[in-house]
Design goal:
This protein is α+β, with helices and mostly antiparallel strands. The chain is built from four helices and four strands; from the N terminus they run βαβββααα. The longest helix has 22 residues. It binds zinc ion (ZN).
Length: about 140
């Protein structure tokens, strides 16, 4: 989602709520093993998300499926309290990103971004990632 968001990096020092960065990184390494993602180069960044519609975002990711590089982006100001949920959710997005990017590309050949069929696609993707995250963690974030 490049068009409707702004990511402010370097918020590591501002994170006082929730899990410390070290703990989040440790969790990421554990999940990297469980999700069989040892062939990925992952890092974790603490950021602030600015969105036009004031939608509060817990996490996001940037991934290059060809190079197997990805950054997991976590909010400096977690409010839901389940950062492990957010972490695993974003890692699963990375895992399916090659498929996601391909499918989304086909859809965007016919439909506008963030409208109609593209919205339907995004909802279906989120539902799948949400279900898989709940399945793996045995819990939900709400
Ligand atoms: Zn998601």
């Amino acid at each position: 989602m490049e068009n409707d968001r702004e990511i402010i990096y370097g918020m590591e020092g501002k994170k006082v709520k929730g899990l410390p960065l070290d703990d989040l990184e440790k969790l990421m390494r554990e999940w990297q093993k469980k999700l069989l993602m040892d062939n990925w180069k992952l890092d974790l960044k603490i950021v602030d998300f600015k969105r036009k519609n004031n939608y509060r975002q817990s996490g996001d990711f940037i991934a290059d499926p060809d190079k197997k590089n990805a950054s997991i982006l976590m909010t400096w100001d977690p409010w839901r309290g389940d950062e492990e949920y957010t972490l695993v959710h974003e890692m699963l997005h990375v895992l399916v990103y090659d498929y996601d990017k391909y499918s989304e590309g086909l859809i965007l050949g016919h439909y506008k971004k963030f409208e109609g069929e593209h919205d339907v696609y995004m909802d279906k993707l989120e539902n799948l990632v949400h279900h898989l995250t709940r399945m793996l963690l045995g819990r939900s974030d709400r």
